[in-house]
Amino acid sequence: MAADLLSIPHPRHSSPLLPTKGIRPRVATARRLNGIGFTAAAGKMSVSSHSHTSPETRSLSHLAPLEAILFDIDGTLCDSDPIHYCAFREMLQQIGFNDGVPITEDFYVDNISGNHNDDIARSLFPGWDEEATTKLLDDKEAMYRRMAPEKLQAVDGLHKLCKWIEGRGLKRAAVTNAPRANAQLMISLLGLTDFFQLIVVGSECDRPKPYPDPYLKALKDLGASPNHTFVFEDSASGIEAAVAAAMPVLGLTTRNPEQLLMDAGATFLIKNFEDPKLWENLEKLV
Fold first, then answer.
1. What one-character-per-residue DSSP string does 59-98 give?
2. Which cofactor names does the annotation list (predicted)?
3. What is the C-alpha to C-alpha distance for residues 167 and 152, in angstroms, rounded to an integer?
4. Each residue of 186-217: pLDDT tens digit?
5. 64-79+153-282, which class in CATH?
């Protein structure tokens, strides 16, 4: 693996000396400013309905009767960020990124977590050509898939929630910026291959998250209305995508800071799928 990574052609100064904190993902910060986000219809700017509402007064009751629930995968179905962090840390150290100093978890959260690989490449390797970044990130994803079978764990309460959804005949889809191979592996490891009716992958849409395209495709393919659908997400970019598709979002505090998720437009936050706040809302929707 190390030899393969180090053989990737790249400019002499293509691994910049970046600080391990403080660089925000450009795609995330560009999507939301003081509660302003995209509308679902045409990508235009509009004021989020959550901007002036306190978390205590937010609910899902307006969605009744509920038709569908959409899930992100990484950090939402499973706590996969520690595995991704390990894979990125090892890969970047092998190629001498940041003078070979391992990236910190803060750097990972600020620059990598929740973002599409194309955006990660542009942010971390602005001087690299597409062939080099594609190979590097493909190698990272392969490393992740080797690690996942031993380390991947479902978020608490996931299977209880899935049984509840199946029992009520609700439509459901997984919507992710992960490569399809990763998405299928994680869903299989979690025992949910037969649960999801659809997997939507950001790179197979015109634009990945934080744009609304993946969520709009899920709604269209399921035949579901955004007026009767909500989303589970754990990242700012994912929340922004769902809000831009005109759906409320429950933010999981798996790894990302709570304020970051609320600023992105989350309706309210839950710790996991056992959270009483979630079940109080679900029982009002069917």
1. -SGGGPSP-EEEE--BTTTB--HHHHHHHHHHHHHHTTGG
2. Mg(2+)
3. 26
4. 999 999 999 999 999 999 999 999 999 999 99
5. alpha beta
Per the DSSP assignment, residues forming a β-bridge with 71 are: 174, 232
Domain boundaries, the chain: 64-79+153-282, 81-151
The catalytic position among 4, 74, 106, 110 is 74
What tokens were used for 250? 């429950």
- Is 221 designated active site? no
**What residues contact residue 17 under an 8 Å CB cut-off, 6+ apart?**
98, 99
pTM of the full predicted structure? 0.79
20 CB-contact burial (10 Å; exposed 0-12 / middle 13-18 / buried 19+): middle
Non-local CB neighbours of 248 within 8 Å, separated by 6+ positions: 58, 60, 63, 230, 231, 242, 267
Query: Could you confirm whether 72 is annotated as catalytic?
Result: yes
